[in-house]
Amino acid sequence: MTPRHGRAVAAHVLPPTAAVLVVLAAWWAVTAWTPLPAYLLPSPGAVITALVENWRTVLWPATAVTGAETLFGLGVGVIAAFLIALVVHTVTPLRRAIEPLLVATQTVPVAVLAPLLTIALGYGIAPKVVVVALLTFFPVTVSLLAGMEGVDPAVIATMRTLWARPAAILWRVRLPAALPQAFAGLRIAVTFAPVSAVFGEYAGASEGLGYHMIQAIPRLRTDVVLAEVVILTAMTALLYLLVAWLEHVACPWRPRGR
Asked: Matching Pfam families, A to Z (predicted)?
């Protein structure tokens, strides 16, 4: 590793690490110096203990279930977003008909949607996948559409002078140009995908992080609940980093910030 590369890594790693340490220190100070009972706000040490003690028997199996729901839901949402964006962009008259429906899918509260899907699809993985897909496809669709329609008109005109067909312009110009914006929408989507899966589990499930949260709250096991929140945060961060890496691989021409 060269000194320049080491400085770049440090510039990316040190600020978030420092922020996490500051939050942990403030959390510890509140629990140590205030009379708050442990069932309202357990200390960081208590949460870590709960995480370690329950990892193998409860938290790891629950994390695997919620992770699978999140990944499947994201996959379905991204595929749906790609197909919808292509149809709306290609068949212009459909845009005015489809756009209100797309917006309407985002106006239904999850607290209403999840129970209805559970009634219709049962207590398995299907309703959670649908919840995640419905809540993640919209930002990807909007971003992909904006990217495809924001191509420099001069580039499109040049392609047309070369007798390029509309399909060739779409696949060789518009879609590649739209990738950075599509990834921006995907970064937004992955930040709430795991939480969407948990909301789906709240509505009805027999496993998963959301199910175990509901089981822990009546027993005042706030330490277990916060341990699951830590897992959800880590899952979201990993997904975000994965999308950032995929964007770096798929869009090598894009300038990087310092």
From this structure: BPD_transp_1
pTM of this structure: 0.85
CATH of the domain at 137: 1.10.3720.10
pLDDT in tens, 134-166: 999 999 999 999 888 887 788 778 878 877 788
CA-closest candidate to residue 221, choices 71, 9, 46, 101: 46
Please give the residue range of the domain that contains residue 166. Answer: 53-250
Q: Is residue 20 part of a domain?
A: no
Residue 242 and residue 132: Cα distance in Å, rounded? 18
Tokens, residue 244? 């950032």
Listing DSSP states for 8-41 in one string gives: HHHHHHHHHHHHHHHHHHHHHHHHHHS---TTTS
DSSP state of 54: H
Looking at the 3D structure of the chain, how many domains does it have? 1
| Tokens representing residue 213 in the block | 């949260």
Three-state SS letters, the chain? CCHHHHHHHHHHHHHHHHHHHHHHHHHHHHHHHCCCCCCCCCCHHHHHHHHHHHHHHHHHHHHHHHHHHHHHHHHHHHHHHHHHHHHHHHCCHHHHHHHHHHHHHCCCCHHHHHHHHHHHHCCCCHHHHHHHHHHHHHHHHHHHHHHHHCCCHHHHHHHHHCCCCHHHHHHHHHHHHHHHHHHHHHHHHHHHHHHHHHHHHHHCCCCCHHHHHHHHCCCCCHHHHHHHHHHHHHHHHHHHHHHHHHHHHHCCCCCCCC
